[in-house]
Write a structure and sequence with these properties.
Layout lengths: L2 E5 L2 E4 L4 E8 L2 E12 L6 E6 L5 E3 L7 E6 L4 E6 L8 E11 L5 E5 L3 E6 L1
Parallel strand pairs: 2-11
Antiparallel strand pairs: 1-3, 3-8, 4-5, 4-9, 5-6, 7-8, 9-10, 9-11
Length: 121
């Protein structure tokens, strides 16, 4: 069974920083895109940042210049460095991977369990 294990959420004051980490465990094959999403109650889950296997990144406009996604292909892990945090960044953050599981050649979406980030004003 493949899992994405997240860590690093918490409570921080506005203007502060947090670093989220996510690592894949289990029988996982090739991984294409990995990403961070976030969701607040009553709203759709939104893409925060994505990184391809080749290292190309893309960010939501709301986090450009403040957040940085990085990836380690050797261990199928990504981090999200979040600086200059704002109260509107408060959400549950989810790790995502598009990956082959076990011996399958099919790519499937995998989600982490989510980690809470709370930014106080």
């Amino acid at each position: 069974q493949v899992q994405l294990v997240e860590s690093g959420g918490g409570l921080v004051q506005a203007g502060g920083s947090l670093r989220l980490s996510c690592i894949a465990s289990g029988s996982i094959g090739r991984v294409n895109n990995m990403a961070w999403y976030r969701q607040v109650p009553g709203k759709q889950r939104e893409l925060v940042a994505v990184v391809t296997r080749g290292g190309i990144t893309n960010y939501a406009d709301s986090v450009k210049g403040r957040f940085t996604i990085s990836r380690d292909n050797a261990i199928n892990a990504i981090d999200l460095q979040m600086n200059s945090l704002r109260p509107e960044d408060t959400a549950v953050y989810y790790c995502y991977a598009d990956a082959q599981m076990g011996d399958s050649s099919i790519y499937s979406p995998i989600w982490g369990q989510g980690t809470q980030v709370t930014v106080s004003s």
